């Protein structure tokens, strides 16, 4: 998730001065890490923990198959559309304050969704959750960056944070299965309330305030153009994926055209704005721009794993929600273990070899999944692919998060981190729409070509197409990384801008 991490050289303060030699580290820093990590885990869990509960929520509230996606899309629209603003707000008003406001708002929105009597209130609550997550997420990692001043300790702290960011989604599938199966789908939202309350209580005591120095004026036109543009883009792709709508529908075309106009206008405005929301120097740098594109494509590709493997486990193999969650546990473990290994290798070999190798491994794992059948054995035909993809993505998350801050000024660190996470969120939303469209087309085509065949075989063909396109997204990311990322190990900032 996003980070407003500082990029001052090791051993200096954000103002560029050398601190006193007797400056002792915060004795409560490891407790603060636990508090911040819990908040990060809550954000990362929130998409996947709700995914498992979608069928139950839809049945309870009478949500149609066409509209059920809005439980997820409302969250990602608000989250992705407002992350740039959230990064700036956290920088300007103070990261601890933003952290506490984000936690309180996220908990309140979760409670509202948990008691929602109809689909309209549930969708609104999910959008509100996304808005507060866009404030909470940038504040969380930036607080971590300023809490740990020793380089070795910081690396360990970010390793923990990276493992949570990468593996949390799979853990959410297990938690969602437990809550849905033994309590109610409503608890997949309600569980956030006590967690957030306890986290806030500890954060007040353990977390220290920090904020960006220098100019702190907001770019209101930039906020409106970027937010509306991103929302129109994701909404347009989501409409295209809806049954009976498609890419040629006037609504879809209108939304995509509006997105193009708004985002082009945003870029043109930012070129001449005196206090831009997104200084173009942040994204035009070769290493940073390459990192953003890599995360956009990885975000799109990773949905092929979570969405369609969930379908495969439950619809094809007959797993319960809880069993499906546990089937993802090796993926989560691979991310956590892989992040620890990569954190040790990064200072020795630099980012590019790790990113390229990781994407290559992830592509192979995704292609492996195109071989699964309705009678495949989990241990021999799904598990190896999960492990390959998880270790591959761990080798991408950690170094690409670091290259996203190569050479960035301290005042721009928050927005540089927010762009990274916006790329991943928008990529995930676009990937959800595109892969759902490809999947549906493959299923429909297979049924038309094979009349009388069991629908289960058509579903498997749809999974194959989705996994193949997921591999294509990751392969394009590999090419971009190989061409654009040239940073050496000595170029990396002291702390990365983790995405999750």
UniProtKB/TrEMBL annotation:
Name under which the protein is recorded: Drug resistance protein
Alphabetized Pfam families for the sequence: MFS_1
NCBIfam families: efflux_EmrB (TIGR00711)
Low complexity composition bias: residue spans: 7-19
PANTHER family per the UniProt record, alphabetical: BLR6921 PROTEIN, MAJOR FACILITATOR SUPERFAMILY MULTIDRUG TRANSPORTER MFSC
Any GO MF annotation of the entry: transmembrane transporter activity
Primary location group: membrane
């Amino acid at each position: 998730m996003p980070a407003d991490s500082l990029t001052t050289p090791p051993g200096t303060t954000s103002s560029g001065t050398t601190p006193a030699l007797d400056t002792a580290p915060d004795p409560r820093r490891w407790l603060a890490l636990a508090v911040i990590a819990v908040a990060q885990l809550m954000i990362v869990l929130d998409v996947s923990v709700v995914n498992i509960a979608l069928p139950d929520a839809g049945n309870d509230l009478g949500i149609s198959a066409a509209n059920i996606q809005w439980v997820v899309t409302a969250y990602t629209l608000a989250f992705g559309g407002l992350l740039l603003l959230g990064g700036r707000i956290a920088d300007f008003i103070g990261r601890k304050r933003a952290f506490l406001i984000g936690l309180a708002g996220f908990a309140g929105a979760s409670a509202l969704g948990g008691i929602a009597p109809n689909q309209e209130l549930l969708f609104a609550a999910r959008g509100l959750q996304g808005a507060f997550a866009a404030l909470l997420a940038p504040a969380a990692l930036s607080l971590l960056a300023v809490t740990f001043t020793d380089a070795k300790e910081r690396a360990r702290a970010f390793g923990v944070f990276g493992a949570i960011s990468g593996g949390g989604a799979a853990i959410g599938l297990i938690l969602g299965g437990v809550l849905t199966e033994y309590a109610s789908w409503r608890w997949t939202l309600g569980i956030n309330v006590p967690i957030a309350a306890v986290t806030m209580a500890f954060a007040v005591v353990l977390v220290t305030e920090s904020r960006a120095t220098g100019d702190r004026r907001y770019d209101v036109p930039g906020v409106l153009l970027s937010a509306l543009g991103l929302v129109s883009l994701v909404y347009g792709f989501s409409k295209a994926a809806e049954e009976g709508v498609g890419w040629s529908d006037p609504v879809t075309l209108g939304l995509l055209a509006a997105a193009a106009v708004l985002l082009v206008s945003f870029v043109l405005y930012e070129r001449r704005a005196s206090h831009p929301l997104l200084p173009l120097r942040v994204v035009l740098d070769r290493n940073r721009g390459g990192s953003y594109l890599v995360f956009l494509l990885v975000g799109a590709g990773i949905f092929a794993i979570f969405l369609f493997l969930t379908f495969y486990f439950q619809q094809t193999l007959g797993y319960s929600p809880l069993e499906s969650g546990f089937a993802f546990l090796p993926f989560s473990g691979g991310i956590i273990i892989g992040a620890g290994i990569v954190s040790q290798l990064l200072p020795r070999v630099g980012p590019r070899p790790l990113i390229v190798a990781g994407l290559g491994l992830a592509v192979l794992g995704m292609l492996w999944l195109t071989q699964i059948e309705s009678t495949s054995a989990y241990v021999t035909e799904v598990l190896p692919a999960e492990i390959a993809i998880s270790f591959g993505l761990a080798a991408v998350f950690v170094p690409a998060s670091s290259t996203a801050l190569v050479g960035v000024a301290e005042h721009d660190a928050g927005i540089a981190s927010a762009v990274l996470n916006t790329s991943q969120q928008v990529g995930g939303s676009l990937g959800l729409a595109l892969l759902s469209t490809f999947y549906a087309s493959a299923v429909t085509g297979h049924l038309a070509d094979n009349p009388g065949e069991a629908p289960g075989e058509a579903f498997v063909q749809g999974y194959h197409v989705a996994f193949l396109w997921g591999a294509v997204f990751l392969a394009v990311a590999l090419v971009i990384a190989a061409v654009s990322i040239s940073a050496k190990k000595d170029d990396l900032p002291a702390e990365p801008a983790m995405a999750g």
